[in-house]
């Protein structure tokens, strides 16, 4: 079928008969040209003729076999000939340059279609493979037998394996539906199954979920097509304008709420921005908008670098961003900076608890410097580019404005505006999520402020040696802080409800069920080799968050909850302050245990706190390795298995009365352990190991409850 350029679609024949070669040379390049057929440029004949003949217009004859063979040969060498090559080829073959141009366009279209058909065939084959795998799992569940007697398995004997099979089947169904949607549109790449084969249940071994064993939707998202890029640019420009107005507006767009912050007036928002790029809010999604400002000890250039570099961004905000990926950079900016930078990204946002589902987003990030010197970075969802996916969360224009201040400081105004389906959030976390503190602007700016103080601390020099525990060596401070940063990132990555994780619940009695998953570690100098079992549980405590944080970070009270210290005294050997709050610090602890095998055990611990949450993360470390770190050596080769606590308020925290139930000023505590259960990466996980870790975490929880209730 013959298609003309978008700019001349109403007059195709006039284009061919009246345009000169100079006029045609002004047409857009191939990226804006549409496909055109060669054979259909001939005058129709026979039954194809119009019964009401019109005045004849000039037509082109069909190409000869020689002309086609010559152009085929040239196409293999150069599928995109320039004007000079097309003119030379037309002279050799006795064709018009326009005919040569259209033939090459048709040929490229034909090759592209053939390639897409091949990809579709591969995707369909993968789809069938997943369906077959799913059927095998169903059959395994249906034909399950008792390993002792060979008869039909009772429900109790199959509890772990049956539950795992059901989880796997649900994931496979989701994966099949997603791949089918992709295949129907000829986009994306084949996605291979990431599920390992189920081993049969026996008396000694069990199979639990694996870290990075879930459906990884973030990495399977395709880069945007060329045809979508103009729409992406238009959406980003509109989002930047909306973000700027939201950051600078006051009442009636923003109104005070009961949480000592501001809320977005939805009616006023619809009047102010009637032509919203994302369209109306989908059914089932709840709007969540917040705005906060903070002055941080970092210049605007470094802040922009953090926000536009996906690795730095996910590191600084590791408690909020569980995973992030840049899919394509559409523009790197101008004049050697990020002004005008545009990149398509995917990210997963989390609360440090397996009880709160993560929020996955596919969005474009745009950076711009305004004429008044203020920088702005905005995100906006691109859900319209993946209509086959049902979105449970999408970002309306969100981001920040950064104003340069004297002495290396910056003022940051942050906007978070999302639409989300949060019905799967556990009841004890609903007050926190509904208040906007879990994912809102206040959490982003509080984290940024704390991380800027941490960075300033790592660069500090001339530290006074007033305290014997204080590390004064700049090299030692830098190495120890880098090691602690890796420890905290590893903890945050493994504690949430990321879709990359496959948590298995060990019981079903309440919100404080223990969830476990495994990770196989090999050839990673930063982790001990073998099978690592991660266990986590979240629960509510009628204790203010600050009191709970001070108790858990204090080395003098550690023997009240730490079973592995065997009641021994804990001594602080080294200390690095990380900010104005004394709770923000990195410490090196030694456990003086009565058990001789643990008398030389060291513990690296980082505690951090702000108005939206607190962490106490720790890991056993080798003495020899820590001596290397303290002398300024490379910390990347120190093996770590982080464990620890994430403490969040149970709501806005405005209640001044007694703490009686969730939302009245108590704490939401997540306890997470990582235990090396076998040094062989190929070993099977034993039921005894799972039972031991389950007992360890439940005993720790009970000790904490008893200690803080006194």
Automatic annotation (TrEMBL):
DNA-binding region boundaries: 56-115
Domain START: residue ranges: 225-457
Homeobox domain segment(s): 54-114
Basic residues composition-biased segments: 54-64
Ranges where the record places region Disordered: 1-64
GO cellular component: a single term: nucleus
One Pfam family recorded for the sequence: START
Basic and acidic residues bias locations: 23-36
Top-level taxon: Eukaryota
Coiled coil: 108-143
Predominant cellular place of this UniProt entry's protein: nucleus
Annotated localization: Nucleus
Gene3D superfamilies: 3.30.530.20, Homeodomain-like
Single GO MF descriptor: DNA binding
PROSITE patterns hit by this protein: HOMEOBOX_1 (PS00027), HOMEOBOX_2 (PS50071), START (PS50848)
Family recorded in the similarity comment: Belongs to the HD-ZIP homeobox family. Class IV subfamily.
Protein name, per record: Homeobox-leucine zipper protein MERISTEM L1
Native source organism of the sequence: Cajanus cajan (Pigeon pea)
Taxon lineage: Eukaryota, Viridiplantae, Streptophyta, Embryophyta, Tracheophyta
